[in-house]
Design goal:
MetI-like fold; transport; 14 helices; globular; mainly alpha; MetI-like_sf; cell membrane; membrane
């Protein structure tokens, strides 16, 4: 297992190198001058030239990329042209918010999608199965931005149950910084008021982000459970007189969970892609909002730094999925 993990991690540097080269070429193909955007529309030629020189944009592209790789090898992701601060510091600031949002969305995906699939499999062909399939497929019918706006309209405008945007209410102070995750930090510091506020603000964006992942998770759970429940060992469990809850959970869901884990790993990419839209809709101060603003400003360092971080996160999560296979099924060896 240790050798397998090391082999997978050894693939990360060349993957990041390929991503950095692709993004570097792609961003520099855009027919616009970031120096003019940074300097402002009323800046003169001398001011634009000064900005271009300050950020090394006056050098040949090959030299710019070589300098970037040299800095990257030392853990330096460059300086943001928009915020004028180190990209690494910006990522430390914005990444916890995105991690909290995607983590909550993944929990919602598992907590809602898996039970929906189980209900559909157990009541196959019945009313519960039809309702479960209708609920899961309904998630695919709504574009994520439409669903987000609809949730704001219902729960903020009409019902006035949940806030419109942000991580905390206006005037509330963040909890003492430990992890950067407001829910976790509030728990660790015993700040009940901030915990309640952060959970309330997290509810709508997390559920909106989870929407696209619910249907694949529910459908995979249902189809796999249907196959498992027809196996001989499940019939034996019924013959022994085991309680239904034990048969469905211990013998059914546990054996059906490996394909579900696979689909959950694939949904990480969907969540990381959807987080850009969700953070814009709900003004969530995370990497999605940071990178979109960087794209609009042609902030090369911010764009590449965000992409490299998300690539590394995706690789590590898929590695964790593979390790989980061996934990759930001891027959799997690497």
């Amino acid at each position: 297992m240790a050798r397998f993990i090391l082999r997978r991690l050894a693939l990360l540097p060349p993957l990041l190198l390929g991503v950095s080269l692709f993004l570097f070429v792609l961003t520099h193909l855009v027919p616009a001058d970031p120096a003019k955007l940074i300097a402002g529309e009323h800046a003169g030629p001398d001011q634009v030239a000064a900005v271009r020189k300050a950020f090394g944009l006056d050098r040949p592209l090959s030299e710019q990329y070589a300098v970037y790789l040299g800095r990257l090898a030392h853990g330096d992701l460059g300086t943001s042209m928009r915020t004028n601060s180190a990209v690494l510091d910006d990522l430390r600031t914005y990444f916890p918010a995105t991690l909290e949002l995607t983590g909550a969305a993944m929990l919602a995906t598992v907590a809602i999608g898996v039970p929906l699939g189980m209900v559909g499999a157990i009541g196959r062909g019945g009313l519960s199965d039809l309702l479960a399939q209708f609920a899961s497929l309904g998630g695919l019918s709504f574009p994520i931005f439409v669903f987000g706006l609809l949730m704001q309209l219902i729960f903020f405008r009409w019902l006035e149950w949940l806030p419109l945007a942000g991580r905390l209410a206006t005037g509330d102070s963040p909890p003492a910084h430990i992890t950067g995750l407001y829910v976790v930090d509030s728990l660790l510091t015993g700040n009940a008021a901030t915990l309640q506020s952060s959970l309330i603000h997290l509810a709508l964006p997390a559920f909106t982000l989870a929407l696209a992942s619910l249907a694949p998770t529910a459908r995979m759970t249902r189809s796999t459970m249907l196959e498992i429940l027809t196996q001989d060992f499940v019939r034996t469990a019924w013959a022994k007189g085991l309680a239904p809850i034990r048969v469905y959970l211990r013998h059914g869901l546990r054996n059906a969970f490996i394909p579900v884990i696979t689909i959950l790993g694939l949904q990480v990419s969907a969540l990381l892609g959807g987080v850009f839209i969700v953070e814009l809709i709900f003004a969530w101060p995370g990497l999605g909002l940071y990178s979109v603003e960087g794209i609009l400003a042609l902030d090369y360092s911010a764009i590449m730094g965000t992409a490299l971080l998300l690539t590394a996160v995706y690789v590590v999560i898929n590695l964790a999925v593979d390790v989980t296979y061996a934990v759930l099924d001891p027959r799997i060896r690497y």
